[in-house]
Amino acid sequence: MTTARDLALVAADPQDRTVVEQGDLSLALAGAELIDLLDAEALALDGTLLIPAGPAPAGDPLLSEAARWLADGGPGETVDDWLWRRGRDLAGRYRTVLEEEGLVAPERRNRNPLRRQRTAPADPSAARAAGERRSSGEPVLGVLAAAAGLTEQGAEAPDGLADDRTTVLAAVLQAVTELAGERQRRTIETAAFDNIWRGD
């Protein structure tokens, strides 16, 4: 399993009642893909610049797709650029692939179309392994899970990691902070607009 898949499986765990913002999870998954590509030596970093460095890893369609996206990004793409470009709707894509592969059961909708009821994973061994990795305190998955809002712990890049991994994790945390700020701004603007209509 890759870091990105483990993160997606942890987020899909029906025992975890945490409400996760899909945008935060998508950014964290995009960062996890960069970590996986670094581990597979398909990517190198020059500061924050992404440099394709080898063939796409085999056996994981989403990671292979990420490697193709990396090549399509062109020279000069930064880690931050990648997170926003690749991260768009990435959480939903991972959920769909995991469902198609039978690693998680499809989400069933309630009568209320805005509320989802989660079902147990179709293959609990994959989710169990991802959960064990998370609970083991593995630092990279811990930071990404915190960035996605799955845990309160580890919301900073830990010491002792390779510089490239630290660069990626710091960029993910910054992007999630920016997204939270944008959500807050929109909430304030919506509330102000509502007050105008109410005459407050």
Structure description:
With 200 residues, the protein is mainly alpha-helical. It is 58% helix and 6% strand. It has helices at 3-12, 22-39, 61-72, 79-87, 90-100, 124-135, 139-147, 163-198, and strands at residues 43-46, 49-52, 108-109, 116-117. The chain has a two-stranded antiparallel ribbon. A two-stranded antiparallel ribbon has the order 3-4. Strand 3 (108-109) and strand 4 (116-117) form a beta hairpin. The protein starts with a helix and ends with a helix. Mean pLDDT is 82; it is low at 111-115.
Biggest sheet statistics = 2 strands, antiparallel
Overall mean pLDDT stands at: 82
Gross geometry: globular
How big is the Rg? 18 Å
Q: What is the first-to-last residue Cα distance?
A: 54 Å
Q: Could you give the order of the helices and strands?
A: HHEEHHHEEHHH
Assembly level: single chain
Q: Summarize the amount of helix as a percent range.
A: 55-70%
Structural class: mainly alpha
Count of β-strands? 4
Pick out the low-confidence regions. 111-115
**Helix count from the secondary structure assignment:** 8
- How much of the sequence lies in strands comes to 5-15%
Strand order of the largest sheet: 1-2
What are its keywords?
two-stranded antiparallel ribbon; 58% helix; single chain; two-stranded antiparallel sheet; mainly alpha; GPP34-like; 4 strands; GPP34-like_sf; 200 residues
